[in-house]
Design a protein that fits this description.
This protein is an alpha/beta fold. The chain has 13 helices and eleven strands. The protein has a domain of 140 residues: 3-Layer(aba) Sandwich (Rossmann fold), CATH 3.40.50. Bound molecules: iron/sulfur cluster. Iron/sulfur cluster binds next to loops.
């Protein structure tokens, strides 16, 4: 498969003031060193509890947030990526700087907006309530200078039909539409510039079950027609399973497990993934699965635990887990786990 995005050591920290006089500055490590590849045309799922850094990762990937450090190569040629593998840090990032989204500025960054888009969780807050639907959908084309006048109108109408709405919705405001229709408008706005890559950030969690199924179908249809690549972020494991080709599990700013969807759901290996997946209901009443209840709360990303970040909650933690951080290791073909139980 051809990589569309290669992520190397991506970090995003936020500074926050703390204490009575807000004098103490603390660092929130929302994303803390992620390496992964998203292949062209795939749906890459990302799961984890709220606050684990999934959304921050998605926004940093497409430069809605500036990374603290790390590199994100977008559409870099395969031979260049292969050359990077054997190089030391010295000059290697200079070699790929024209593909490194983390270093883009000005015009390069503006042009990137056309190719990388995002659909947010709740269209009630992501759509401007004072704009007509036609202006909301057409705005990215205007801002990018891609269409105006009759051409702009034609493309907006065309997109409305593609998302299952019609011309009559053009002169309505977001509050005049249902929740599912509003999310369709958000999808239309993201796709009107014909991007290569779209972050879907919990796109179905604000709608009911029947609308969810329709939206998932819409995502699939667009993917096959337009050859899109998605990063699909969700805490809803069944939705991720239905849509994704591969899935990464995040815990406190790190990826702890990554595999093909079928393999991950059939054979989760990391203790955190096992606990997370044990909560998925099984439709067959004759099959029983033991629910694993984790002790304690997710620790603060301000001061994450030493060694393996999961050790205070892990039922298998050993002494080494408190001291040494495990790294992602390929334990089966295409199945990566960061855990000392598997030598990571
Ligand atoms: Fe548990 Fe240790 Fe594995 Fe972390 S490294 S998940 S604490 S066994």
């Amino acid at each position: 498969m051809e990589p569309l995005i290669k992520v190397y050591g991506l970090k995003k920290y936020f500074n926050m003031s703390e204490g009575i006089f807000k004098k103490r500055i603390v660092e929130i490590r929302a994303v803390d060193g992620i390496d992964l590849t998203i292949n062209r045309g795939e749906v890459f799922g990302m799961v984890g509890e709220s606050g684990c850094g999934k959304t921050t990762f998605g926004k940093t990937l497409i430069r809605l947030l500036d990374p603290t450090s790390g590199h994100v190569l977008f559409e870099a040629p395969m031979d260049l990526i292969e050359r990077l593998e054997g190089m030391d840090d010295g000059g290697k990032w200079e070699l790929v700087k024209e593909y490194d989204v983390a270093r883009f500025k000005g015009k390069q960054l503006k042009a990137l907006r056309r190719k990388m888009q995002i659909v947010y969780q709740d269209p009630r807050t992501s759509l401007n309530p004072r704009m007509l639907i036609k202006d909301i959908i057409g705005e990215p084309l205007k801002v990018q200078g891609l269409a105006k006048g009759e051409e702009l109108r034609r493309r907006v109408v065309d997109m409305l039909y593609k998302i299952g709405l019609t011309e009559k919705h053009m002169y309505r405001y977001p509050h005049e539409l249902s929740g599912g229709q509003r999310q369709r408008v958000a999808i239309a706005r993201a796709l009107i510039t014909e991007p290569e890559f779209v972050v879907l950030d919990e796109p179905t969690s604000a709608v009911d079950v029947s609308v969810r199924a329709q939206l998932l179908k819409l995502f699939k249809d667009f993917q096959s027609k337009l050859g899109l690549t998605y990063l699909f972020i969700s805490h809803d494991l069944s939705v991720v399973e239905a849509l994704s080709d591969r899935v990464a599990v995040m815990y406190l700013g790190k990826v702890v497990e990554l595999a093909q969807t079928y393999e991950l759901f059939k054979n989760p290996m990391h203790p955190y993934t096992k606990a997370l997946f044990s909560a998925i209901p099984i439709p067959d009443p004759t099959v029983k699965r033991e629910r694993i209840i984790l002790k304690g709360e997710v620790p603060s990303p301000v001061n994450p635990p030493s060694g393996c970040r999961f050790h205070p909650r892990c039922p298998h933690a050993k002494e080494i887990c408190k001291e040494k951080e495990p790294h992602l290791l390929e334990v089966r073909p295409g199945h990566f786990v960061a855990c000392h139980l598997y030598g990571g």
